[in-house]
Every structure is written in structure tokens, then in C-alpha cells.
């Protein structure tokens, strides 16, 4: 059924293709889109054209459909607008792993828990819950695009991924008039198991199911003094936890298959993680005078996170559950978290300076339940933090040297509550390079401080974690080559992490992390080369594990067929050297240290084709084409200990924008 739908959608898109090709859209003044999404993500907008009247003249399209970000407004860049990206470059990178160029790792399949292989210091202060396994699949506030279009704008996207993965997207936006806009974005993402016991034609084959929704609106007063931006973000994600794959001995040959893609899972099919997030966000500003505005930026979020395993015997036997405290048959853990976070302040622009100062109160609380509440005498546990308060003040200052691309910024935040925190950061960005320094102390996550469930029980009183970061980059550009060298140095004190027993612990000392590398993009007529490479090290490998070498890149060849069909053919590859990668604990959804299993270095190669005719874009991709290639390459690989990376698979997708 899914294949039939995919073929039908593909044929319909061909029938309705227009015969006029659109060129790649450049952002104004060479400004890059915030968020580092690159170009070409499905649902990033897509261009389109619509007929204004009964004539054949198309005046609506990518160049009349603009968008902007809240950060631009907050930083007094109200007039900045971005054009829709219609390029083919990176269009095939639709999964989180591909979008990150391999800098993210998951549990081997879409919608599973993920983490960055590199250390990333926090960028803000304020106590957090500490459950981030599914952040990759949630919409972030800084990614929300507010639309400024003179016509209705709709996009439809469908991807049929490898191993029965599918992703459908729908977006609609419209200006009610020139000062009021509203829109809706909706996504449905599913993935199937690679291993374990299941029937491929039943719902039991599902591994992950995800729904995300975004509703947004913007309003400008007639005199341009008042502005309102508001949106609602939603995530609903359910994942069947498998605990990794078991290695078994073949009864005939007596050999162990190191890559058993048809092997059994380590925990039962009754184990599930589920998370739901509701986030209501609003931004307002009012101009009192030239160069002086009042603003309010606030967000209310609610999180429910649940882990359930109705048959824990298999997980106990295979060492996933190392202890049992309440019930030897069933595990159930529910965590509820609510946060009201707002900023009240003033900002403006004066004599070349952008400035901002604010007061930021935060109200938050967590409560949790271990095992189901019952009246039959079975044990259960509840605990809560009560209502807590953060009392934060902050300021931000920027000075533009010649234009918005060359500037000096400084920011500071201070939390005056019991959880003392601070964030100080300065950065200089010029055409010759970028250099910056940040020192931040953050309060321990709520989850690291207190947890009580069927398999874990801890109560901690950790110190705040401190990170000093120096970073810099230096570009070398020519007409055909763009090369940027960069470096990161982190000094970390009182580092909080999960140890080999999956328990939170704190290293009461100092250690360093170092990363040097480069990114490049070269263009030689039809040939294009892009990539990155890093060397990483640490002076305490017992505490933080990182692959010493990382590289990811691609080569593409662009051409036009029959004057209207734009085609980009390419090969992409990524590599991480062998290292003791973090293991994963499904009960608490945390990656933790392990010293017994090395994840072997592998080169993973993908082949792809991106196609555009008029404004409709398609891609075709064969991932892991070198899997067991001619018997000389391995028949699989692990991305996280006991979790295999996805095997060879074919994917295709289409993005179809509409205007009228």
C-alpha cells in the first residue's frame, strides 16, 4: 500500500510539473539562514508560482515568499527577510544523521535516541529537566519561520525511506493582510525495526512513530510600533525500545554472525518510551522612541516522559536491567515537567550599538511516579521537586564594524537564585575570521539530582558544572574554493555525566577537550566538493570518549537535461575512527560511559541524485552502498554499542510547493 501511494504521488507530481525551471535562490546580502540547516531540507519552504489573474503571467513564487526569524527582530534587524531555498545542494539530506553530516549518532534507525559525538557547552542558564534523547525530532524556537507572503503558500512533501521509513510533511501559510500572517506545519514520521521479532505487515513492525505540529502567527500594528509573534510547538513521539541486538551462534556452522540484522532484540517487544511536549511561545515589542523598545519574550512548556516494559524478564536476563527494586514483572516510570520562562526588558539601536537588557524569571517543577498507582498493595513511588524559581538578569551588546557580517558582541546572564549560574560570552566576527570565548556555569539537571524507579534510585547534591571555551575560525576564499579552518578548546570543571552503571556522577576536577579541523566547499564548473574533517582529543579519556578522527564529505556533478531538468548526481561518505562510544540506557533515556565494547571505524558511503524541474524537487538515494561490497567490505557496522547502523537501503522523496 505504501509503495503504491509513493508511485502514485510520483506520477502526479510529473503530470503537474511546469516547464519553466527556476534558478537557485540566494539569500539577501549573502546572509546565511540561522540554525545551520544548510540548504535543501524538505519542508524548508520550497518555491512556487501562482497565477494572479486569468492571464498566464506567474508573479508569485520563491522570490515573493519571504520569511524571517524571531532572533532577527530581537536583535533589531526588523527589515531582514530571507528567500526560500530552491537549490538541489543537500536536498537528499533528510534524516537527522544526514543533516548533521554524521556528527550525530542514534540507535541505528530513525526516531531513536540521539546525541552529538562532540562536546557542546550549554548556551544559556536555568535549570533543565535533562531528558534530551528526542530533542533532534522536536521543533526549536529559533527554527520557527514567520512568513511574509503576498499569496497563499502551501508545500507537500513525502519521503519513502529505507527499511519502511516514511516522512510526510504539510505546510500552509497566508497573509490575511500585509500586517497579519498565520500558518500551520505538520509532520508524520515513522520507522520500522531492522531486527527483533515482528511481522512486517502488522503494526508490530513499527519501531518509532512521531507527530510534530507548528502553528504560528505574526502581527504588526499600522504605525509599526507594536509587533506580536506567537507560535505553538508540539511533539508526540513513541519508540519501541530494543536494548540492542543479541549475537547468537548458528546451530549448523557454530559461528557467530557479528552483524545479525535478523537477530533477536535484547529486551521484550513490550518496552516503550513515549514523550509528549506542548510549548506555547510569544514575543512582543513596542517602540517608545527611535532606538528604544520594550519587549517581552516568554514560553510555557509541558513535558510528559514515560517508560514502560510489561515483561522485564528478557531485559533482566540480558543485563539491561541490572537491579529490580519493586516489581520483577513490570516497569513503569512517568516524569512530568512544567516550565514558565519569560524575559521582560528593553532594547534598541544607538550610535552603531545594538543593546538589550532584561529580567528573566523562571518557574519550574518536576514530579515523577515509579510503577502504576494501585490499591492492591503493589509497591509504587512518587516524588516531586515542588515549585522552584530562577531569578535571572541579563544583557547583550553588539557593535557593527561595517555591516551585519562584521561585528563584536558581548552577552552576560546571571542567576541570583539558590542554583547560582552565570554565562559570559564575547565574540568578534570579521571577514578575516571569527574568535570567541565563553565561560558558563550551569545548575545540575533535575534528573541527575533525583530519580526513583524500579531499576534506579539516586539522590545527589551536585555542584554546578563549569565550562570555559575558546573557539576560532579563519576562512581562505577564492573564486572556486572556500576553505575554513577552525579550533575549539574546552576546559571543564565539575563535569556531570552518567557512568558505566548508568548512574549520574560528578568528576570533581578539571580536564580539557580539544578539536581542530576544517570545512571546505569547492566548485569547478559542474563539479562540486564539500566536506569537513576534525581531529579531537582529551586529557581524560576515562571521563569523556570521542573519536580521534572524524571526516564527512561529498562530491557532486550538476547538469541540465532537455533544458528544464536540473540533475545533481553525487557520492557522500563519512568516517569516525574506532572508540569506546557511549552506551544507551533506555529506562532513563541517557547515554552513558562504557569501557568494554569499541565501535569500529567504518566508511559509510551513499549514492544520490537530486532533481528539479520547475519548482518541484525530488531525490533518490541508496545508503550504505559499500555494505559487504564484493565481499571485501564488512556486512554491517555499529553506531552505538549493540545497536547496528542501518543496512543498505533505497530512499526517495518529493517536495511540491503550491501557490494560490
Features:
mainly beta, 660 residues, 22-stranded antiparallel β-barrel, Maltoporin, Chain A
* Low-pLDDT segments, ≥5 res: 1-56
Shape label? globular
Radius of gyration (CA) equals 26 Å
Corresponding CATH superfamily: TonB-dependent receptor, beta-barrel domain
Which bin fits the share of residues in helices?
Answer: under 10%
Structural class: mainly beta
The number of distinct helices, counting runs of at least 4 residues, comes to 5
Sheet with the most strands, sense and barrel status: 22 strands, antiparallel, barrel
As for the number of domains, it is 1
* CATH architecture annotation: Beta Barrel
Strand content: over 45%
In the CATH hierarchy, the third-tier topology is known as Maltoporin, Chain A
